[in-house]
Amino acid sequence: MELRVLRYFYTVAREENITRAAQLLHVTQPTLSRQLMGLEEELGTVLFHRSSHRILLTEDGMLLKRRAQELLELADKTQREFQSREELSGEIAIGCGETCNMAHLSDLMVSFRQEHPLVQFRIYSATADEVKDRMENGLLDMGLLMEPVDISRYHTVPMPHRERWGALVREDCPLAALPRVTPEDLLPYPLLLSWREQVNEQMREWFGECFAQAKVAARYNLITNTAIMVKHRVGVALCFDLGTTYYDSLRLVPLSPALENGAVLAWKKEQARSRAVERFIGHVRNAPEA
Q: Of 131, 155, 216, 232, whose CB has the highest number of CB atoms within 10 Å?
C-alpha cells in the first residue's frame, strides 16, 4: 500500500466526489478511479458506495479513512523534520489540554523562537487521554497534560500553575451569589462533568456519598462549547478556572472543599526525537518558573 494511493483515497473520502478530488490532486478522473479500484482489490473489500453525484464510505472505508489520516500526518511530519538540516528548523507538535499553564508554554515558545525562528509549533487541543493516544502513535512530540493522569511512560516537567476547580454558572443562577459551592449546593442542579474517567473518579471522591444523588445532564471534553451550554441553561459545569475568556456573562464559583490540579509537559521515554524537539526540551528544562 503506497502513501500516494492512500493520499488519493483520503482526498476522495474527504471530498465525497471523484471529479473534485481529481482536480485537487492534479490527476485525471480515470487515473484516480483506477487507483481506488486497485486499492479495493489489494485490501479485498469495498471502500465506497458509488452514485452518479456522490460517493460515500462503507464501514471499511471509514476505518481506512481514520488510519490514512494518521499515516499521512505522520509521513508529512517526518518529511518536515528532514527538510532542513543546516540551521535548526522543523516542527514541534504539542497536544494541550485547556489550562492556564498554556500562558507559560506560550512564553517558552516565544523565547525559543527568538533563538530559532525557523522552528514552527503545531498545537492540538484535546483532553489528556486523547493527547496521550496521539503521542503513543507518534503524531505529537509532547503533551501539556492535566492531572490526574498516568505519566509512568513519560519524562515530565511540572508546570508552575495549579488549576482551581469551580462551578461555572449563569450570573442569574442562585449559586452565583455564593462565595463557594459545596456538593450539597449542587444537588438540585443538572451538572456538566468531564468525560475523562480519572477526573470522574476525582469528582466522585469530592462529592463523597452525595455523588449518587447528582443529576448529570451531559459530559464534555473541552470547555468552549460547555460554556455555551451553561449560558443556554443545559446545566452547571464543573471545570477549571481559565480566566474571563470563556466566561462572559458567567461566573465560576470555587468549590468547597477546594479542589486543585497540577499540569505537566510530557514526552515519551526512549523515543527518537528531532533536533528541534530535543533543543526545545532543553529550553523547557532550563527555563525559570513563572
A: 131
> Is the pTM of the predicted complex or chain greater than 0.85?
no
C-alpha distance from residue 217 to each of 70, 121, 134, 180, 230 (Å)? 33, 37, 29, 22, 11
Q: Crossing angle of helices 275-286/102-115, nearest 10°?
A: 120
Q: Which residues contact 29 (CB under 8 A, 6 or more apart)?
A: 18, 19, 22
Tell me phi and psi for residue 169, to 5 degrees. Answer: -135, 160
Return the DSSP state at 271: -
Render pLDDT for 138-181 as a digit per residue (tens, 0 to 9): 999 999 999 888 899 999 999 999 999 999 999 999 999 999 99
Cell numbers that stand for 34 in this block: 483506477
Of the candidates 264, 261, 127, 266, the one whose C-alpha atom is nearest the C-alpha of residue 202 is 261
All three cell numbers of 274, joined, read 528531532
Contact between 129 and 99 under an 8 Å Cβ cutoff? The reply is no
Burial of 59 (0-12, 13-18, 19+ CB in 10 A): exposed
CA distance 144 to 98: 9
Residues 78, 273: Cα–Cα separation, whole Å? 10
Report CA Rg, the chain. 23
Run of H or E including 133:
helix 128-136
